[in-house]
Amino acid sequence: MKLTWTTLFAALLMLPGSAPAQEATREVSNITGDVYLFRNNSHNSVFIITAEGVVVTDPINAAAAAWLKSEIGKLTDRPITHLVYSHSHGDHASGGAEFGDVPNVIAHENAPEAIDGVVIGQRFSEEMQFSLGGKTFELTWLGPGHGVDLAAMVIRPENVAFVVDAVASRRLFYRDFGNAN
Questions:
Q1: Tens digit of pLDDT for each residue in 153-178?
Q2: What are φ and ψ of residue 92, in 5° steps?
Q3: Regarding the domain delimited by 24-179, which CATH topology (the fold level of the hierarchy) does it fall under?
Q4: pTM of the model
Q5: How far apart are the first and last CA of the chain?
């Protein structure tokens, strides 16, 4: 019996203890003009303030999106008019509902009908372009690879490109071969 209790105690010592979750590191920085970078730990997103409204990309997660919405409110009183998903993976696309009722939700045609409860209203196949407040947004599907719905966005006239997960730093490059054709 003593051996059993000793073995059980030793086994319990080997279990990992619980640790509090790390506080997310978040920041907003100006890239150029009205184009801003939003960082949430190792994930990036952009938002663009135009004369007619705000275009937001990947919400990342609910907590990040709520924080970002508050930060955007400090910079402008214009509404969020567009939510553009780079792709539907949960580490980029969760939390879109935090932005409220966004009139224009855009994703590639291979994305699900709804991402984390947000219904996709506009879809594109190869390319799509829209204009808002003197800026043009060019969306391009990058083909199968990291996923089946990965897209890049170029903001003009600033000539800023927003591309995620095409290159994975500090990770094995072949990590997602299962999604490639």
A1: 999 999 999 888 666 555 555 454 44
A2: -125, -30
A3: Metallo-beta-lactamase; Chain A (3.60.15)
A4: 0.78
A5: 58
